[in-house]
Amino acid sequence: MNHSAPFRDYAWLGLFIAVTLALLLLSPDAAAVRRHAHDAAAPLLAIPRAAGTLIGTGGRGWQRWQADRQALAAAQAECGQLRRRLAALELRAPAPAADAGIALPAAQVIGAEAQPWPSALVIDRGAADGVVAMQGVAAWHDNRLVCIGRIGAVYHRTALLIPLNHPACKLPARLDRGPRGLILSGAADAGCRLEYARPEITLAAGDSIVTAGDGNLLPPDLPLGRISAIAPRSGPFQSVTVIPYCDPYTVEQVYLLPAPGGQS
Amino acid sequence: MRTLRPLSGWALLLFLQVAVLPGIGGGRWCPDLLLLATVITALRRGRMAGQSAGFACGLVQGLFSGAPFGAQALLFTLTGFAAGSARHLIWYRHPLAPALFTLPAAIILPPALLLISRLAGQPTAALPDWAAVPATIAFALLAALLPWPATPDRR
Questions:
Q1: Mean pLDDT across the stretch A14-37?
Q2: CA A141, CA A123: separation in Å to the nearest integer?
Q3: ipTM reported for the complex surpasses 0.95
Q4: Digit-coded pLDDT (tens) for B24-53
Q5: Which pLDDT score, from 0 to 100, does residue A65 have?
Q6: In this predicted model, which residue has the larger pLDDT, B61 or A43?
């Protein structure tokens, strides 16, 4: 019996596994895996790279490193100044908390969901900050707080803001100083539609629509939008188009309304 | 001529696997002939030939599947090695031995492939249709009827 055969088999097995793992890591699907591996290895790779730079360029590498370090310190100082200026500007901004009588946590809109318009927006507050699904979101517009949508999916540090005109957004609404029982529903390009508007309700273009406060979902009497058109009735309910007061896609800072039922 | 015959056999197997069998029954009952060939090679010729055949079959399978390239090669190589190593546990020249070894491999491979696909950056990868398992076993039983040439008993 050839005693080197098992070793040869294991060696070939190791070679095959190494080749297949290399193929797996080089496949286009594994780009994310490679990126994570690169990020994890970056601190380790930085040391030999820096040493190689210093050795390879003689004394010039050290001077360049010092210059880079000074430039970085200057950039950090400038960043600190800008942060202080931003904080001062935020202090001078109107305080929505005082207007609403409650402390509202602020959030920044940091992006939009990658899908065809109308897309949900991404805010920089998530479950770790106490954000919960269905929580109302408002923005400061014309010196008052107006509702611009609700929270959809909640992740650890971010959450999706479903704007009022998003087809997935449906909120209980009512006519300002009028009857309840209406639903404001997103209608994409057309803005919003007012559903379940019974014929006996007198509506006119320009009327204000506010939150109803039904189900403790949103605080009551928060402005939502204004009636822009009322089409001739073809069914049991009136067909009403509502334009939101505030275009959510132009807003940078939003305020999180109290969570439904005081969850957060 | 001695090398031409096995090569033509592998070519015929590949042709059946990628061109003929996927068209039968809408592809749902398509057996994994390359897995079967890997197991039979490992049983008849040992783990070295088994893992080599598995590596080659896995690479070919990877070309025609949506899984990350290399995943099948890894799994088929391990299958060939395992079947070749474990063949002495049973009477591996028995006609039903390929079916006995192919069944666990056909059951374990899809979840393992799914796991590797997820790890390699395919979050939407899903388990394939399990109908391929009985089809593969049926072909393993059919393979028992073939007149296999005698091979020397190697480790």
A1: 80
A2: 18
A3: no
A4: 766 677 888 899 999 999 988 888 999 999
A5: 75
A6: B61
Does the predicted TM-score (pTM) go above 0.80?
no
Q: How far is B139 from chain A (nearest CA, A)?
A: 27
The SS3 of residue A196 is strand
Other CB atoms within 10 A of residue A15 CB: 13
Closest chain B CA to residue A22? B70
- Give the residue, B24 or A254, on which the prediction is more confident: A254
* Chain-chain contact of B55 with A20 (C-beta, under 8 angstroms): yes
Do B68 and A17 count as a contact with CB atoms less than 8 A apart?
Answer: no
Cα distance between residue A72 and residue A63, in whole Å: 14
Cross-strand partners of A225: A209, A244
- Cα-based torsion angle of the residue sequence A40, A43, A44, A49 in order, rounded to the nearest 10 degrees: 130
Residues of chain B whose C-beta is under 8 A from some C-beta in A? 47-48, 51-52, 54-55, 58, 62, 68-71, 73-74, 77-78, 81, 84, 116-117, 119-122, 155
Q: Chain A window 32-51: which residues touch B at a Cβ cutoff of 8 Å?
A: 32-33
Quick check: helix, strand or coil at residue A168?
Answer: coil
B48 to chain A: which residues are within 8 Å by CB?
A: 5, 8-9, 12
> Do B120 and A24 lie within an 8 Å CB cutoff?
yes
CB atoms under 10 Å from CB of A67, counted, come to 10
| A72-97: average pLDDT | 73
Mean of pLDDT values over A94-108: 62
Residues of chain B positioned with their CB less than 8 A from the CB of A8: 48
Strand partners, A238: A197
H or E segment to which residue A170 belongs: strand A170-175
Q: What is the pLDDT of residues A33-65, one digit of tens each?
A: 777 777 777 777 777 766 766 666 555 666 777
Q: Do the Cβ atoms of B70 and A20 come closer than 8 Å?
A: yes
